[in-house]
Amino acid sequence: MSPLVRAACASGQRLVTRRVPGSSQRGFVGVCALLFVASVAMTVAHNASMSAMGAVPMPGGWSMSTLWMPTCGRTWARVAASFIGMWIVMMTAMMLPSLVPTLLRYRDAVGSRARAGRLALLTMLVSGGYGVVWTAVGAAVFALGAPLAALELRWPALARSVPFAVSAVVLLAGALQFSAWKAHRLACCRATPNLAADAASAWRYGLRIGIDCGHCCAGLTAILLSVGTMDLRVMAAVTAAITVERIAPDGARIARAIGALAIGGAGLLLVQALSAG
Asked: Is Ligase among this UniProt entry's keywords (predicted)?
């Protein structure tokens, strides 16, 4: 990363550039809104189909989603492809509200050096780089989650410990929200470095903001995965948390407030685990 990019990331300040015409930005926001609605609808539909398949009751008073296992004659490859497809749609719905402001800042930064058609292409490349990072995260999540689910089905003692592990994950994720590391990652997500208006720079920038976003959302994503990947209420709460801490004027303060809520939630989950045990 260049010194200029690091400086902008550390300070969280935007570089001043000539803005893209408002009509172009409004059109871009309109396209993003349609994409958001479509991804939400697909996520809800997928959630309904998974709910219809039911869940497996587990020792410890919790249930495992069939999302992690080959049912109805499906192969592991098909299960993995289904999970990653679901993950891409779900992450589109969850991350788009916080990604759009970043893309708007990027378009402002390079808009004075790119015509409308080229600006659209550069924006697509940035979005593509961002999407590649989150797709890789989804593949890693499945590669870790599927074997863990298989072990939980095989070992009842491990399954009984899951509610306690979930409360610990939520507690650690809440504590992470108070860290200076989290505040720094938020600043990086808000920054717009001085970029060249070319395809290679756009692609690298997309990868960079994807990595920054993954780091910034690590704790909240862990909460989503541990509490309920296909629970629409949890998804909505995590989406709201990610969006508000990114776009609020004092994101670090919002992040700490979210952390306090997560720590309180961890306490409730622990009480539930003890009661079930």
From this structure: no
Pair of tokens at residue 144: 């870790």
Prediction pTM value: 0.85
Q: Which residue is associated with the tokens 């780089």?
A: 129
Cα(28)–Cα(18) distance, integer angstroms: 17
Distance CA 196, CA 213 (A): 21
Question: Between these two residues, 23 and 178, which has the higher pLDDT value?
Answer: 178
What Rg value do the Cα atoms of the chain yield, rounded?
A: 20
Q: Considering the domain boundaries, does residue 5 fall inside one?
A: no
Token digits for 240?
A: 């709201």
Q: Which residues pair with 64 in a beta bridge?
A: 56
What is the count of structural domains for the chain?
1
**Structural domain range at position 108:** 20-59+76-276
Give the single-character DSSP code of 177. T
